Amino acid sequence: MENLELSAYLRSLVIGTETQVPITGGQFVPAINFDNAATTPPFVSVMKGITNFAPWYSSIHRGKGYKSRMTSNIYEEGRHIIGDFVKADPSKDVIIYTKNTTESINMLAYIMSEEHKGKVILSTEMEHLANDLPWRDKFLVDYVSVDEKGYLSLDDLEFKLKKYRGKVHLVAVTGASNVTGYINPYYEIAKMTHKYGAKILLDGAQLVPHVLVDMKPFASDEHIDYLVFSAHKMYAPFGVGVLVGPKETFEKTQPVYKGGGDVRLVSKDFIEWDLPPFKNEAGTPNIMGVMALIDAIKTLNRTDLNKIHEYENGLIHYAMDKLKKIPGVSLYGYSSDNQPKVALVSFTIEDIPHNMIAEILSRHSGIAIRDGLFCAHTYVQRLLNLTGQELNYYRTHPDVTLPGMIRISFGLYNNYEEINRFIEVIYKIAGNKRQYVQKYKKYVID
Ligand code: PLP
Question: Residue 261 phi/psi, 5° resolution?
Fold first, then answer.
């Protein structure tokens, strides 16, 4: 397929590409969404799937009606589709449906803390808060450092694995950063982690929507022990997340949520928990969300994620090459050494605050981007070289705008024309800062 044809085809897969939004002055323009790392619009196939399934929707597992049986089958079949998608081991892994990546990691942290309290978790300086905060109050947490370019230091990982001498239970690392887009060498990390007797949790929130992830067999030293991701970042926005991990982790431990659906038999004196994953999905689950995720995976499989990744990579390199030529722009996530990455990059423009740029892009041009610390505070602080003193200042001055960056993140439906429109506006902003600030400062609270 030619690139133009591919681009048009990919664009046709999602809903909302033609939506018009109002801008200053009252006109309407086609919305440009460069905030796909936050959440993606739904696939057409997902919405169709939901509508087609709706007449059959019913309670799962306990109902004996035809619709219940059918719904239960699809819901359970979903685990196989997801498992196949990430090459989990159907005989050893469980696929647990959660609400999102954040809930998946919190669940895992609670479950692990039951058996491994007091052990060490190695998180990293480039994590989203979802892969940092859940560990803090339950384990001794240390952070693998990043270098000045923003790359994870494998030397520091090995140093810390050695330093804690067998006490590290888990290395909790992101597959791809939501700030720079850098893809971590997760198989190398897995190898090193296993060498020191620890397990690896891969945060796939920014990886799974863009790259074919293979958890590899249990016997492989590159095996990914735990994988988490969110459906709403992969064109299925109905509130489902996934936690994949070895059955035995969940067999011996208490479930985090307790109630109907996770037990086999209960008396006033005892509780017989059901087996995982049922044990870990108390209450009526998000059935429509699961249907949406199944349809999204089928669409991604049909389209070929390798092709999508290549196309998205073309987009981000095009955008970065244009951005880096604009005076006053500093890029975070651009590298000249072919570092693998997903289609997002962050930047700042000298002398103009990030929140102001975000307001201008939205109100002047209908372009949605993300600004701030992106829930990856330590990483952004490191990349911006903020000192402890500066952080203290921001901490003790709640009225002051926090430091931050601008981030653009692409989905498979974005195209070169949208990037050109965006670059044109950034050029204008960077060249006429005073006028823009004057015009849009009323929207920015400081
Ligand atoms: N991990 C990373 C790398 C993310 O980018 C995000 C969200 O942006 C999360 C975790 C949390 O995902 P969710 O909000 O779906 O729980």
Answer: 90, -15
Which residues, in sequence order, are CB contacts of 436 under 8 Å at separation 6+?
352, 356, 360, 364, 428, 429
CATH superfamily of 4-41+304-443: Aspartate Aminotransferase, domain 1 (3.90.1150.10)
Domain ranges of the chain: 4-41+304-443, 47-301
Atom of ligand 1 nearest to the CA of 103: 16
CB atoms closer than 10 angstroms to residue 240: 28
Q: How far is the CA of 256 from the centre of ligand 1 (A)?
A: 20
Please tell me the pTM assigned to this model.
0.97
Instruction: To the nearest 10°, report the CA torsion of 202, 334, 350, 361.
Output: -70
The answer to whether 313 and 343 have CB atoms below 8 angstroms apart is: yes
Residue of 173, 180, 230 with the most ligand 1 atoms within 8 Å of its CB, for mutation: 230
Buried b (16+ CB within 10 A) or exposed e, 126-163: bbbebbbbbbeebbbbbbbbbeeebbbeeebbeebbee
Q: What is the pLDDT of residues 218-243, one digit of tens each?
A: 999 999 999 999 999 999 999 999 99
pLDDT digits over 187-204, tens only? Answer: 999 999 999 999 999 999
CATH code reported for the domain at 47-301: 3.40.640.10
Which of 97, 99, 102, 370 is the pocket-test mutation for ligand 1 (most atoms within 8 Å of CB)?
A: 102
